[in-house]
Amino acid sequence: MRSFLASLLMTVTPAALFAAPVETPAKVTSVILFPQGAQVTRIATVEGGQVLIPGLPDGTDISTLRVTGDGVAVGAVTLIDDRQPVAGQPDSPAVAEVRARVETLEQALAEKTDAIAQMRAGAGAARARADVLRGASTQNTPLAELENLARTVGEGVRAAEQEALTIEAQARDADAALKPDREALEQARQALAALEHPAKGSDTLLVEASGAGTLTITTFVADAGWSPAYDLRLDSGAGALALDRLVSVRQAAGEDWLGVDLTLSTARPSDRTDPSEIWPEQVRFGPPDAPRPMAEATGFRKADIAMMADAAVPEMQGETLTYRYPAAVDIRDGVEGLRLKLDTIDRPVSLRAEAVPLLDTTAYRMVEGTAGDEPLLPGPAALFVDGAMVGSAHLPMIAAGAEFRLGFGAIDGLTLKRVIPGASEGGRGLISRSNARVETVRITVENLTPRDWPLRVLDRVPYSEQDDLKVTYKADPAPTATDWKDKRGVLAWEFDLPAGGNRDITVETTLNWPAGQVLQ
Predict the structure, then answer these.
(1) What is the pLDDT of residue 355?
(2) Residue 60 · residue 38 · CB < 8 Å
(3) Once rounded to an integer, what is the mean pLDDT over residues 292-296?
(4) How is the beta sheet containing 73-80 ordered, strand by strand?
(5) Residue 15 banded pLDDT, cuts 50, 70, 90
């Protein structure tokens, strides 16, 4: 080990061993955005030695920090969130470029300022000449020549003053024209100061590297995410549904992500990764009025309460998917409402009207179809029918290949009426030997629209799980489905209703229960 260390020291110059770190900026190049959180990738070009990479967001988690090299062997990595080591020379390429620009702008501004100063010196010389003329003595001037002298002096003063005014006006115009130069110099100085003295509140990375190449720095940001949204466009004539998939993205990482490659992932690295823990169930017996622990008195045991708390955490179903956005994206820090369009999914669907006369007075437009090869994530959706917006809804989670049913608004011309023309109860009072109730319901559906509609009417009859409570019914016409969608007692009638047509449905329900009992 000692001989290896000695040979290593011999291959490294003393200056390299004790050189100050070189400050090198790293550019955010790509972001993988999760529903909650983001993985941010930066690239820095290095030439080995100690590299100081400023500008990481304040509070960067070292446990999620990863540094890899291409052509560079990465040694120790230190995340600094307070006092930073002094960066050595030479300057980083970015600092050297900005400093050279500052020097060039300073030199150009100085030359133009000197030229203006020379102009103003010429104006001063003209005024001095005018002052000399004003002070000229006329003591020994003959009276005959005095008038010509006065005229000559006056013209000389006037010409000198005019020359001074002209030069000063030119100098003012030249000075005003320097405004863009001064602004460019000030911006360059601010850029240099930002590179030389990174803003407080950011973290810095110190990397031991050998070789020349690039460093890839990956961090995880918790305060970021994306959520899906949809525009659902129904073509009722073609029986086709177009789903425009949109995403809303956000981030508050403390920095802007400009011109990054964006990937959207359905993975949830910030969520739980293991199933709920199941606890043993203890049973006990005792007198009916024996006191019970408070948790049991409410109907829940401690294990039940713990499992209910766990169940409140949402979990994704299905495979993890990623979506690569095709163009570079700017995602500014703390700015909400950036919406991007992913793509459009076209699916064939069937369209029918669905009526629930028990609760509604109009039928609703329903679309039924099957999802494609990838799931549709839950999110808000705007609904359009034949180009016109008809409402909004929340699209549920739809697994790949799963059937879906979506509502697309009311059909005002399909009117519903549900009446109970008569009801009777056999037997009166609790001492009756037997009780019975007969109820008749009549449903009328009328189509006042100019088109034919395939229609599904849903209604219900009571059901019983007690052997002594008998429920029977007669329907005219007979329903096409009973216990519809596995809902006990729900009946469905499916038929075509032509424009201007109507249809009546009658249901008579009979309930019988033992004497001395009441119907609840």
Answers:
(1) 93
(2) no
(3) 42
(4) 22-23, 49-57, 202-210, 73-80
(5) very low
Q: How far apart are CA 107 and CA 90, in angstroms?
A: 23
Q: Say how far apart CA 483 and CA 480 lie, in whole Å.
A: 10
Cβ-Cβ contacts under 8 Å for 376 (sequence gap 6 or more): 230, 243, 345, 395, 397, 398, 404
Tokens encoding 272: 């739980």
Q: Which of 205-209, 393-397, 465-469, 491-495: highest mean pLDDT?
A: 491-495
Q: Strand, coil or helix: what is 135?
A: coil
Nearest to 414, CA basis, from 480, 366, 365? 365
DSSP 312: T
Pairing of strands 257-265, 322-324: antiparallel
CA neighbor of 220 nearest in space, from 59, 37, 69, 80: 37
d(CA 22, CA 99): 16
User: Distance between CA 220 and CA 41 in Å, rounded?
Assistant: 9
Percentage of the chain beyond pLDDT 90 is 25
pLDDT of 287 reads 65
Q: Is the pTM of this model over 0.70?
A: no
Establish how many alpha carbons lie within 13 A of residue 446's alpha carbon, considering only the half-sphere containing its beta carbon.
8
Question: Per-domain residue ranges for the chain?
Answer: 95-193, 280-313
* Residue from 407, 417, 395, 412 nearest 365 by CA: 407
